[in-house]
Design goal:
The protein is mainly α. The chain contains 22 helices and no strands.
């Protein structure tokens, strides 16, 4: 039991106590006696394996009581997924400095008797930093800080009636809600992600900020096509393109529209949208909201190539999907580490692996996927997990039935998705105002 990743909380706790399957079977009667149950009691090897694998129906009442006494957690939790906690490391000098600066900034905002330029400036800077941090920081870490920042913005909105200050605060609120949309989606909450994106769009509409509105609509499109509603996604994208500014905003909308169309099998339209997106990127770079802040607000050629690779995967074109996925990885590799979207790069690797499976190159697929398969669970976002699930289904088709490489890789993918971020995290609801 100790030589593989735990499949359930029960197996995780058993591994932590260095219990083998034999130890578990021998210890169960002793734990039953310690729990005050009248015995003798025993558990079969088959039943124990089902419990340790997780997801099994609840055992009979007496067994539930024994397990809960033994491991001191509810049996529903024991048979559920393992818990992956972020280790708490010693606090470094850098962390002390960073935390001290954040606390000072928060206190200065809260203590202001009226909103002054410095308070607004601080909120805007924190929102901009969050957009950049999104590329390298886990969604779990981002969640609480974004909610706190959003609430600070709401508090300031309640304290001012000056139109200019309100407009600035609505812009920051829209940006933070958009980031919460991305984080909520990473954690597997499609409905909440869509609510946050709609809130961001509403704020953009209130202040007539076309770039914010376009970005928020692109987030909605992304959630919709991943959620199995490609026609709805196309409708949103088409409407948003009517008012979106030229450059980055339109490039992103054309790209996500292409991915939505690919799910409908519209190959010619997909290529047309990708071409339009590339043309818009030629005009990009001077949007004061999207380009100057960057991070999750930005959209560059690496992300365009990622969208193209995913679109051709959806169309079943392994050759073109491989070309685009390799191009995406090359472009991601050229970016500075701080500006590189880690989850996007993982997505490109999965698209490359999928393209090679489409072409029958299982060894090449395994090579492309290896860095992703080794990701820690907090880095396995919902989009990454869904890409893997789609590939796993492909490996289970008749074409690869009986192929040892397909079976082995399929087992690894199943384990990967079982321990993805959305399935191993206690989820927090991030509702809009």
């Amino acid at each position: 039991m100790a030589n593989r990743d735990p499949r359930s909380r029960l197996e995780q706790l058993a591994q932590a106590r260095r219990l083998s399957l034999g130890d578990f079977l021998r210890e169960f009667p002793r734990q039953a006696e310690a729990a005050g149950e009248e015995g003798p009691f025993h558990v079969s090897e088959r039943q124990a394996k089902r419990w340790l694998a997780g997801g099994a129906p609840l055992p009979r009442a007496v067994s539930c009581r024994v397990l809960e006494h033994w491991f001191e957690e509810p049996v529903e939790q024991l048979l559920g997924p393992p818990k992956f906690e972020v280790a708490v490391a010693a606090v470094s000098e850098e962390e002390i400095i960073v935390n001290a600066a954040r606390e000072s900034a928060n206190h200065s905002i809260e203590s202001s008797s009226a909103i002054d330029p410095s308070a607004l400036e601080q909120l805007a800077a924190m929102a901009a930093q969050s957009a950049v941090d999104y590329y390298k920081t886990s969604s779990i870490e981002m969640l609480s800080s974004l909610v706190a920042l959003r609430n600070s913005v709401y508090e300031q909105l309640d304290r001012t009636h000056k139109p200019r200050q309100q407009a600035e605060l609505y812009l920051i609120a829209g940006q933070v809600c958009g980031l919460l949309s991305s984080v909520s989606w990473d954690l597997g909450y499609a409905d909440k992600a869509e609510e946050q994106a709609r809130a961001a769009h509403t704020y953009g509409s209130v202040i007539d900020h076309l770039s914010l509105s376009a970005w928020a609509r692109a987030l909605q499109v992304t959630v919709a096509f991943w959620d199995g509603r490609p026609r709805h996604a196309v409708t949103i994208a088409q409407a948003a393109l009517e008012t979106a500014p030229a450059g980055t905003a339109r490039a992103r909308l054309h790209s996500v529209k292409a991915r939505s169309l690919a799910l409908l099998g519209a190959r010619q339209e997909v290529q047309a949208e990708l071409t339009k997106a590339a043309d818009e990127l030629d005009r990009a770079g001077d949007d004061p909201f999207l380009d100057e802040i960057g991070g999750e607000l930005g959209f560059d050629r690496s992300r365009h190539a990622l969208c193209a690779g995913a679109a051709f995967v959806a169309l079943g074109d392994g050759d073109q999907a491989e070309v685009e996925a390799l191009r995406a990885l090359e472009l991601f590799g050229e970016l500075p580490e701080a500006n590189r979207w880690a989850a996007g790069e993982s997505g490109a690797r999965i698209d490359l692996g999928t393209a090679r499976v489409l072409r029958g190159d299982l060894a090449g697929a395994e090579s492309a996927l290896r860095p992703v398969l080794e990701l820690d669970p907090p880095r396995r976002t919902e989009a990454v997990a869904l890409r893997m699930q789609n590939l796993g289904r492909m490996l289970g088709t008749a074409r690869y039935r009986g192929a040892i490489e397909a079976i082995t890789l399929g087992d690894e993918i199943e384990d990967f998705t079982t321990h993805s971020l959305a399935r191993t995290t206690v989820r927090a609801i991030t509702d809009g105002r």
